Amino acid sequence: MHSLTDLHYVRARFTLTPDRPTTLPPFLGSTLRGALGHALRAVTGDVHRTDDERRALADTCPYLSVFGDPAVDPPGRNRVRGFVLRPPPIDDAPWTPDRPLGFDVTLLGHAQTALPAVVVAVGRMAREGLGADRAPFELTAVTDLDGEALWAPGGIVRPPRLEHGADLRGRGPDQVTIELASPLGLAEGRDLVPVTPDALLRGAFRRLVKVLGDCCDGQAHPKEGRWVRAIAPEIRVLDADLQPYAVRRHSNRQKRQQTWPAWRGHLTLQGQAVAELAPLLRAAEVLHVGRKTAFGLGALDLR
Predict the structure, then answer these.
(1) Are residues 35 and 174 in the same domain?
(2) Same-domain pairing of 87 and 189
(3) Same domain, 245 and 138
(4) 13 and 146, same structural domain?
(5) Whether this model's pTM surpasses 0.85
(6) What is the CATH number of the domain that holds 47?
(7) Number of structural domains in the chain
(8) Is 18 helix (H, G, I), strand (E, B) or coil?
């Protein structure tokens, strides 16, 4: 897929260790996203800026490159956030010193240079505490996804390897099992839709188009979008185990509880089109699919 040429990103894995057993919500996407946003805004000084100052700093401020701000976006433009959050799997067991909390952050395009500020912000959010009770943690490690250290307590942040969408190209097998590693909010317009190969792949291509345009100064090839729509319906579903799941969170900004409908489970796909669309599926592993990816929804694992 030529559309992957302009995609570039860096990935980091964070480990937070509590000093005692600590229970947090089973799905931590919203908790981590909110805490990271507050901490990154604080360490970059954005909290005290005017809208005019944010516009002037939009291309250089780590907070604005990662989280964006409606004040600096073009009118009516809902820009993609410059990061993807992958929370730990849903689990209501307590986190302990022997069972630390781990999560991944992918910084997309221009946001890749914000990693040192993100590391500092994660350290701050850990010290200030997570969840309703503000349970304290300590940032104990930052690595790449291969386990190579990018940071250790008291040290500087080592730049991670810059990854390119071109590395995701190449034909794959004609059968793949897709695990929904976090709840998937697959939507057409405002409506949640069933997880079909057609809906999943069209959602993956829409996500790629938005990331390329908003984060990487790139664009997808229109012919490839038509090609995806043409061959995705040819894919067969060999097996599927999917259940509806309600993601519940409290919005501090709106001062109310929110519920996001989503799916959990897995499905196995087969067909010539699976092999041909393997690059798009690999991109979906990196970028997530569907709604609320900045909150950790839409993570996929291919096997």
Answers:
(1) no
(2) no
(3) no
(4) yes
(5) yes
(6) 3.30.70.1890
(7) 2
(8) strand
The answer as to whether 266 is a domain residue is yes
Would you say 235 and 269 are in contact if contact means Cβ atoms under 8 Å apart? yes
pLDDT beyond 80 at 135? yes
Residue 3 lies in a domain: no
- Segments forming the whole domain that contains residue 231: 168-302
Tens of pLDDT along 56-84?
887 789 999 999 876 666 655 678 899 99
**Stated length of the chain:** 303
* Residue 103 contacts residue 88 (beta carbons within 8 Å): yes
121 token code pair? 């912000």
Q: What integer is the mean pLDDT of 137-164?
A: 94
Does a structural domain hold residue 241?
yes
* 33 and 132 part of one domain: yes
Q: Percent of the chain beyond pLDDT 90?
A: 75
Q: Are 195 and 186 in contact (CB under 8 A)?
A: yes
Within a 13 Å sphere around the CA of 300, how many CA atoms are in the beta-carbon half?
A: 28
Q: For residues 199 and 187, what is the distance between their CA atoms, to the nearest angstrom? A: 8
Count helices and strands (H / E) in the chain: 8, 12
Question: Residue 14 has what pLDDT?
Answer: 98
Other CB atoms within a 10 A radius of the CB of residue 159 amount to 11
Cα 32 to Cα 87, 118, 131, 229, 249, distances in angstroms: 8, 12, 9, 35, 12
Has residue 2 been placed in a domain? no
pLDDT in the model for residue 75: 58
Angle (CA) 177-29-8 rounded to 5° is: 65
